[in-house]
Amino acid sequence: MDSLSKGVVADVLHRLHQEAEIADGQLMQTFANEAKSREEIISKAIAAESRDLNEVYRGLADNFLSVSPRFGRFLYMCVRASKAQRIVEFGSSMGISAIYMAAGLRDIGGGRLIGTDLEPGKIERARANLAAAGLADLVEFRHGDARETLSSGLGDEIDMVMLDGAFTLYLPILRLLEPHLKRGALIVGENALEEASGYIDYVRDPENGYLSLSLPFEPGRGNEFTIKTR
Prior knowledge:
This is O-methyltransferase YrrM. It holds the Pfam family Methyltransf_24. InterPro entries: SAM-dependent_MTases_sf (IPR029063), SAM_O-MeTrfase (IPR002935). Keywords: Methyltransferase, S-adenosyl-L-methionine, Transferase. The two termini are 32 Å apart. Helix 1 packs antiparallel against helix 5 (96-107) and helix 4 (69-82) runs parallel beside helix 5. By secondary structure, the chain is an alpha/beta fold. The protein is 45% helix and 18% strand. The protein has helices at 8-34, 38-51, 53-58, 69-82, 96-107, 120-132, 146-149, 170-177, 199-203, and strands at residues 86-90, 112-117, 139-143, 158-163, 181-189, 210-214, 224-228. It has a seven-stranded mixed sheet, sandwiched between helices. The protein is built from nine helices and seven strands.
C-alpha cells in the first residue's frame, strides 16, 4: 500500500503543491531580486528572526514555505522505514509535510504526529488540509511558540522529528525534545543552516549522541539527516 501514488492523499498533495508554487512565487522572486548571494539571503533571514521572530512569521502568514514533492517523498519513506509511531514537527505551515508523514503512519498501521506553528491561520489551514487528505485523526496541531507548545504533553518516546521552522530555533527545539528521543530516532532538518543556532555543529559532534550528514539532494537548502545514537 502506497498512499502517495494514487488516491485522495496523492490528489490533495498535487493540489497543495500547485497552490504553494503560486503563493510563494512572488516571495522567491523578491529574494532573487534583492539578494546578491545565498549567504546574503541567510544573513538577512537570521538577523530578522533575531530582531523579532513573531513579526517575521506574521509577514509570511500566506506563504506555504513547504517541502518539495521529492523531500516529502523522502519524509514518507523515513516514516515507513523506521516504523515510526510518534513524530514531532516544528514548523507545520499549511500541513504539506504533515500529510506526507501522516500518510506514512497510516500506511504502516497508525501512529501520532504532533505539529506546531506560530501562525493561527496556518494551523487552521493545515487542519483543513489533513482532513481533506483523510488523515486528521493521526495529527494534532498546536498553535504558538514551539518552545512552549512542545514543552509538555508529548507522550511516549519520539521516533522521528521534522525541523522546518525558524532557522534560529533548531538547536533549542532539539534540546527541548532530547529527553523524549528514543535511541535510533530520526531527525530531519530542512533549511538546517550552518550559520544559524549552532544546530549543525551540535548534531555532527558524536559526543552529543548523534550521527549526522547533509542530504545529497536539493543542494544549498541545508537539508540534514540525523539519527540519535544513544
